[in-house]
Amino acid sequence: MNSNNFSVVGKSVPRVDIADKASGRTKYTNDLSSPGMLHAKLHISDRAHAMIHSINLKKAWEVSGVRAIITGESFPFPVGPLLADRPPLALKKVRYFGEPIALVVADTEQQAKKAAMLIEVVYEDLPVVNSPSEALKSDTPLIHEDLGSYKVQVKGVYPVPNTNIANLTKIRKGNLEAGWKNSDVKIDSKVSFGPSDHAALETRSARAEIKPSGHVIVHTASQGPFYVRKLLSQFFHIKPGMITVHTPAVGGAFGGKGAVQLEFLAYLASRAVGGKLVNLQNSREEDLMASPVHIGLEARVKLGATQEGKLQAAEIEYLFDGGAYSDTGAGISKAAASDCTGPYSIENVYCDSYCMYTNHPYATSFRGFGHPELTFAIERAMDKLAEKLNMDPLELRLLNAIKPGDTTPTQVHLNASNIGDISACLLRMKEMLNWNPDTQIMKTEDGKIRAKGISCLWKTSSTPPNATAGAVLTFNTDGSVNLSCAAIEVGQGTKTVLAQILAEKMKMAMKDIHVKLEVNTHHDPHQWKTVASSTTYIAGRAVMAAADDAITQLKKIGAVALKCLPDDLEVGNSRVYVKDSPEYGVKITDLAVGYKYPDGNTVGGLVLGEGSYNVRHLTPLDPETGFGKPGPQWAVGVQAVEVEFNPEDFTYRVLKSATVLDAGKVINPQAAIGQMRGGMYMGLSWASRESFIFDGHGKILNPQLRTYDILRSSEIPEYLVDFVETPLVDGPYGARGMGEYGVIGMAGALGNALAKACGTDLYQLPLTHERIWGSMKGGGR
Amino acid sequence: MIPIDFEYHRPKAITDAIKIYQALTADNKDTVYYGGGTELISRSRLNEITPQAIIDLKNIPECNTFKREAGQIVIGSTVSLTAIADTPLFPLLSNVVRSIAFRTARNKITIGGNLAGDTFYREAILPLLLSDSKVVLAGGKGIRQVEIHEIVGKGMKLAKDEFIVQILINEKYTKYPYFNHKTTKQSKVNYPIVSLASIKVDDRIRIAFSGVCPFPFRLREIEDIMNNSAESPGERARKVIDLLPSAILNDMHASREYREFVLKQSLCKLLEHVERRVS
Which stretches make up the FAD-binding PCMH-type domain (chain B) (predicted)? Predict the structure, then answer.
């Protein structure tokens, strides 16, 4: 990592939110109590697919303190970010186990819960659709009979009426037939896994009130308060200016808090009690089952290559398990199509990527947005190809690594800026892991097998073409700066990184930068969402623009004070000074609220810096070929895992886990390393053990953390992290995004390492000991 | 959040506890005794149990005893698993309870609750079965002492109005060679797929099981097979499978087939360990 000429960027400055968090004083949405606040609780479905015959509220109304009970009929219209297909409360039928059916508002949470439990629903069961491949069959029952009448909210979503297809994205690049003709070696690889969860520490929470003025005030644990405002406005016909959304610190999100769900319900609950403040907080079970989950996938990847290993053709089918409603699942299937091949240069690509409706909980964004999922499919296929070619898996990847001059599956031309350096990452990983053909599989003295597996990864942001962020700077009388920006601190360190960018740009010390942690749509400038590893880029650019604006204003007033032209001046060290004679200057303290002459006359008003940024030139994908530009740039990386496998009992341990990411520019090394470790942890946890377990009727058997297995901190491996820096020309100081990347390659790397150790194909996640035992029964190494 | 209302009682003497129970049930109140309350909290918040009254046993001095006395280890029913894990008066018991749940939960879970609660693994019972422990019970019939085997069948045979006061373990059993092995689905903190505990008394292996069937057990016939050293560990393990007191569990933690595999592996590991130790 180079740290040339920067005083704050590239330095591991402590997080700006560390003191309050370390001492337990940070307040999250549900930590704030308010006198007179009412409480809402949900009654959720215990069927995965059934008609609602009747709902009996009699016993629930008998509970003291109950103020209102609402059901699907209270707002019988579908909502949804991409395709409006989901009633906030189930209407006429339920489509997943855990679906909210009714909501009780009462004086206390206990009363609300008691009443919610006393609601009696009579169902008529329907056949349950248990997997995306089952959903695709023509004789499978329809989950949404009215799919053809649902309103598409965002261009580029293509539901297929009278099927269970919520979205289909096609990629047609080059000539597949020619590709197969040029291929000496072909492989056909399948993978699959079911839905899992984000399982953030803070369960989702929202509260709403409608003031007598009509002003709607929402507090929510969200990654997109402006997005909440947008959807509330859209579906309830409230002017955006009449909605204020507050988000304090968020206790982990991982994409799961980008979805809007409880906010709709809290609003409806408040509306039902005359606009009083109503709080709705998920229990852990509700957070796992009722709120949206991490998507599942069934994938088939066929690759063709020359004898030398050069990829010629890729034919790919992704069947995403979007669950009962499309939410952002329809965007995930599109994002996976855009990057369907992984970071490899392939001339001839054919991909059908489906978001399928099933009777599983509905999916929303999960850290990586389709990429951890597609990468598992592609990277297992690459290892199978390497085996068939009798080639080192790393060398095969090096030979095919995508680079400037190539095109992506959606035919975006890559250049030295918009794609990172995958080869450099591979070479660094080779060195870091001492990767060579002899050390990939080794026997230990006690009869265990150590093996290494590798995975490349890439991702672009799939942001909408109007994804934007803004920043506003105000100055305090001590010359320090307040940064107001709607990036959400979900624990990823974004506020620290934005403060560093501002400090660098203003040439100020970090102690003079004050970042507001919480976000309020009434005060803070608009921002799309804090998702897609895009905040450093989009909000970072907005902060730089705001700094430029403030600098211009400071120079303008400084020019009056220093009797020169603004161009003669420089800003730095909390001063405005003459470029060629830095000893002549004036403190920002003396300029930021106007420059005061000795006689009291004052020139200039307040310095208020503002700036914004919008992504450029993105386009929807062509419905027939996928041609289009899905994101501004591709960050790339390589991950690897070393496992120790016990062939006697089929158990394994992960010994090492490594990431090399092309970060463009690392703004905060320690924070970046932390992000990569956290990503690897999450990826390993998902790949090795996280999954919902369903019975044949679509019932979730493990809706609690005691049975929904998550990697324990005592089980984490040794982490190795390094970065490559290929600058993104228009990124802040060259930075690309990094929030999601640490997760993306872990399942591929773990699957490849274990498959090598076992000598058998491993194609299903999670990679539990029983699953390995099951696949070895047929004979392994 | 527990949605139901219930009466809470915390007697200071065994006799008071019994009286309160009798009064509450005479009043037709669904009443339960409890120790740590972890199961009470986790099940009642899901509406799986809805007691109208609960009796907290933690203030009864006899239930809090934990000592070595006159050749016996005396463990009160409300002694926490953490206390037992951290005080190795009976090292096998300490080992076994240390594998139950995680430390924060063990700080709350009591040994009485682990034995008499609804969660059927009851792993703390394994060392008690092996050491032919005695149990002091209190209830409508007054205070009585029984063999642990009398109250363990396919589940616990405690009368609804009875609670465990103490467990009495003959100290000699704490000195025999022992072995325990627990396999979970994946993470160490989880319910057992197979949990074995074993001691070797006068050259004879004793063994008790949890996680294999929907109740813990110790069977003479199984021990006979295990002690037949003329047969290989693998052969013995196979024969044990035929003698299990019910079908092997088949649930989301493990399939029946995988559990059987793990059980055989664990039995072989145990035999290798025990027989290597002797030779």
Answer: 1-212
**Hey, are the CB atoms on A283 and B45 less than 8 Å from each other?**
yes
pLDDT score for A779: 54
Domains, chain B: 7-56 (3.30.43.10), 61-173 (3.30.465.10), 176-278 (3.30.390.50)
Pair of tokens at residue B224:
């006979």
Domain that holds residue A547: 466-614
Name the minimum distance, in Å, from the CA of B262 to any CA of chain A: 8
Tell me if B3 and A114 make a contact (CB, 8 A cut-off).
Answer: yes
Count of alpha carbons within 13 angstroms of residue A191, beta-carbon side: 31
Q: Which of A272, A289, A306 lies at the terminal end of a domain, its last residue?
A: A289
The answer to whether the Cβ–Cβ distance between B185 and A110 falls below 8 Å is no
Which residues in A lie closer than 8 A to residue B2 (C-beta atoms)? 110
CA-to-CA distance for B78 and B99, rounded, in angstroms?
18
Taking the CA of residue B274 and the nearest CA in chain A, the distance in Å comes to: 19
Whether A599 and A651 map to the same domain: the answer is: no
- Domain match, A449 and A476 both: no
Pair of tokens at residue A569? 């001046």
Interface contact B185-A770, CB threshold 8 A: yes
pLDDT at A325: 98
User: Quick one: A655 exposed, middle or buried, by C-beta within 10 A (0-12, 13-18, 19+)?
Assistant: middle
Domain annotation covers residue A149: no
For residue A113, CA distances in Å to A58, A266, A283 come to 15, 15, 11
Chosen from B2, B5, B102, B186 to mutate, greatest number of chain A CBs within 10 A:
B186
Q: What one-character DSSP code corresponds to residue A204?
A: P
Give the residue from chain B lying closest to A691, CA to CA.
B252
Q: Considering only A146-160, A434-448, B4-18, which range has the smallest mean pLDDT?
A: A434-448
> What's the pLDDT band for B18 if we cut at 50, 70, 90?
very high
| B187/A709 Cβ within 8 A | yes
pTM of the model: 0.97
Q: Does B66 touch chain A (CB under 8 A)?
A: no
Within this chain, do residues A666 and A745 fall inside the same structural domain, yes or no?
yes
Would strands A519-520 and A243-247 be described as parallel, antiparallel, or unpaired? antiparallel
* Owner of token pair 């990094």: A738
Q: What are the tokens at A420?
A: 């990172």
Q: Which helix (H) or strand (E) holds A629?
A: none
Contact B187 A715 (CB under 8 A): yes
Confirm if A628 and A622 have CB atoms less than 8 A apart. Answer: yes
User: Is residue A609 located within the same domain as residue A637?
Assistant: no
ipTM over 0.90? The verdict is yes
- Residue A455 in domain: yes
3-state secondary structure at position A657 = strand
Tokens standing for A221? 């644990």
- A16 in any annotated domain: no
Residue A122 forms beta bridges with which residues?
A: A54
Residue B32: how many other CB atoms lie within 10 Å: 18
pLDDT attached to residue A1 = 45
Question: Backbone phi, then psi, for A363, in 5-degree steps?
Answer: -95, 150
